[in-house]
Request: fold
Amino acid sequence: MTILDIRDRIAQAESVTVLTGAGISADSGVPTFRGEEGLWKNFRPEQLASPQAFERDPTIVWEWYNWRRELLSTKEPNAAHKALAELENHIKHFWLITQNVDGLHPAAGSTKLSEIHGNIWKVRCTNCGNIQPNHDVPIAILPHCNDCKGLLRPHIVWFGESLDQQDLDQSFQALRSCEVLLIVGTSGVVYPAASFAPIAKQDGAFVVELNLDPTPHSDLVDISIQGRAKDLVPLLLPM
Ligand code: OAD
Reply:
């Protein structure tokens, strides 16, 4: 089966769900998490992206996010993000689930999506829970809520935290009901997204993986194609 056969399969489907990870943004120049460029001052993301790290030292966590905001502020959606934004107009039931917090999917025009790990361009008050968009680069350290003066944190799901229930419900519904699941640029090791391919497969979806390298899911999916997201995803748009 070739990528063009997959395109035909997608064109005939009434329901398509897509799961993306850091690999789709790698083609926009965003470092992946498990690649070497994902390190900052020799910290691994796991050491900073946690409620414990923020409680211990909110300044260093915000400094890291400022480094990431600065890096991301220069990046733009690539051909793969744009193709997925277009694909949603061609499929009757389409849903995009992304683990990326970089905001490049909405920037490309995607509207039918769950950003299950949050969005780096949003802040949330640790006191009153209010969520606000914030595009400051850099953000003032330490930022405080306009309403209640509580400390603001990134609106991101950190290690050890639960995903938003509405995002999860929406994602599982989309996984269980789709004819085709397309997985792009994720190592497939972080839960719950790591469970998405088996769930969709069990419920009868045709599962396609596009990744630069083989992943733990490559043997489970119906077809795994290796290559760059920006080269492969645009080939999936209907003629
Ligand atoms: P990873 O860094 O774990 O994996 C990125 C995947 O993209 C790898 O499998 C690469 O082979 C692949 N890849 C790299 N460049 C590519 C390209 N140009 N085209 C296609 N594929 C490419 O990133 P994620 O799987 O997204 O969580 O990581 C999942 C989560 O772990 C992240 O959302 C983050 C992290 O901890 C949070 O921030 C909560």
